[in-house]
Write a structure and sequence with these properties.
The complex is a heterodimer of chains A (335) and B (89). Chain A contains ten helices and 13 strands. Chain A has 335 residues and is of the alpha/beta class. Chain B has one domain: 2-Layer Sandwich (TATA-Binding Protein), CATH 3.30.310.50. Classes of the chains: A alpha/beta (335), B alpha+beta (89). Chain A: Its cofactor is a divalent metal cation.
Chain lengths: 335, 89
């Protein structure tokens, strides 16, 4: 029996999760929500995390009904992500690891998403689409690495959605992407936007500039509604993602797709992916917002796999890093 | 005006040396940003955590010290709430 506690705080969510051999014992989380039209800045986000991390940790232990002495390993997000929030959370992980005399383990955030998705859905060897506010990657496992087949060459798909929400002052509560998704359901007119797939990669910054430029003109002239824009943006962005995912599957002969990351709980993206999967007789795996959106349990789960295969991070090597690619980690826990 | 390097010294007493050492280990790993014009060194003597800064500019020194104090406060609050240290198991 192995129990791992995981700390996550690389963006605007702070979460602490506890995993015992594939079972989520607890997974509380708080989100730093900014007013409409504003993004979250590193220092404010770090302050938010510092103010509630201990409460979230307390909740995680209470809900799991375990004592610190029952824990085998303390996992935390080493990166990638925003520096100040990462440091704030890592400091708490280091301190409790020492207080409780437990080994520490730095986890790659992207690997956390993948391992949590595999655990929850039971997908064996899927082509992974990892889509969030900070990352957009198509990933396939081979020879002890999660290999990046395609990715964004500029901003993440979630960043494109978040920034579009700021232009229209769409609220950030519970998340800008969720509110865009709800508005998109009422969209009727498709407004053509640039479509930028470059081989296996995608680009979103041009689409964002384009829609930022034309949104107010088209809205004030009554050519389209905010709902139409939400709908058109989603259809365009998600079509691009489905296209590169399908190409990666064709390359690898893969019959499984797993969607992870915050944007992954968008039901419209899941529907579009499902259509593509049906055509190829492939199977789609996705999770809901509890596990798609950043959370502590995903770090605990990746930590569990790593700890069981012998990984540990000495305190002096426990520095955080804003850049940490998915394929830098040797996956020693898979064949 | 030729600016001299600025120095700042902080000595933080803890109830015991174990806690001073834990704070040291929690706060040491993340180095100051590359070529940021500021350096910070931590050391522990008995129950005292000592931190020394050297910087080219007051502005950078202030930011670094300020952020360190926030982190130190977080370590102390974590110890208060989830300490004291467990004995070896």
């Amino acid at each position: 029996m192995t129990i791992v506690i995981g700390f996550e705080g690389s963006a605007n969510k702070i979460g602490v999760g506890i995993i015992q051999d594939g079972k989520v014992l607890s997974n509380p989380r708080r989100t730093y929500i900014t007013p409409p039209g504003q993004g979250f800045l590193p220092s404010d986000t770090a302050r938010h995390h510092r103010s509630c991390v201990l409460e979230v940790l307390h909740e995680a232990l209470e809900e799991a009904k375990i004592q610190p002495k029952d824990i085998d390993c303390v996992a935390y997000t080493k990166g990638p992500g925003m520096g100040a929030p990462l440091v704030s959370v890592a400091i708490v992980a280091r301190t409790v690891a020492q207080l409780w005399k437990k080994p520490l383990l730095g986890v790659n955030h992207c690997i956390g998403h993948i391992e949590m998705g595999r655990l929850i859905t039971g997908a064996e060897n899927p082509t992974v689409l990892y889509v969030s506010g900070g990352n957009t990657q198509v990933i396939s496992y081979s020879e002890h690495r999660y290999r990046i087949f395609g990715e964004t060459i500029d901003i993440a798909v979630g960043n494109c959605l978040d920034r579009f929400a700021r232009v229209l002052k769409i609220p950030n509560d519970p998340s800008p992407g969720y509110n865009i998704e709800q508005m998109a359901k009422k969209g009727k007119k498709f407004v053509e936007l640039p479509y930028t797939v470059k081989g296996m990669d995608v680009s979103f910054s041009g689409i964002l500039s384009y829609i930022e430029d034309m949104a107010h003109k088209m809205l004030s002239s009554g050519e389209c509604t905010p709902e139409d824009l939400c709908f058109s943006l989603q259809e365009t962005l998600f079509a691009m993602l489905v296209e590169i995912t399908e190409r990666a599957m064709a390359h690898c002969g893969s019959q499984e797709v797993l969607i992870v990351g915050g944007v992954g709980c968008n039901v419209r993206l899941q529907e579009m992916m499902e259509i593509m999967c049906k055509e190829r007789s492939a199977k789609l795996f996705a999770t809901d917002e509890r596990f798609c959106i950043d959370n502590g349990a995903m770090i605990a789960q990746a930590g569990w796999e790593m700890f069981r295969s012998g990984h540990m991070t000495p305190l002096e090597d426990s520095w955080i890093t804003q850049r940490y690619r998915t394929d830098e980690v040797e996956v020693t826990w898979r064949d | 005006m030729e600016a001299l390097p600025l120095h700042f010294q902080l000595d933080v007493p803890f109830p015991c040396s174990t806690e001073a050492q834990i704070a040291h280990n929690s706060l040491s790993p993340d180095a100051e940003p590359r070529k940021g014009g500021v350096s910070r060194t931590l050391s522990v003597q008995d129950n005292v955590l000592s931190v020394h800064w050297q910087a080219d500019e007051a502005r950078i020194l202030r930011v670094s010290v300020g952020s360190f104090l926030e982190h130190l406060s977080l370590v102390v609050r974590t110890m208060d709430r989830f300490g004291p240290a467990l004995s070896d198991s």
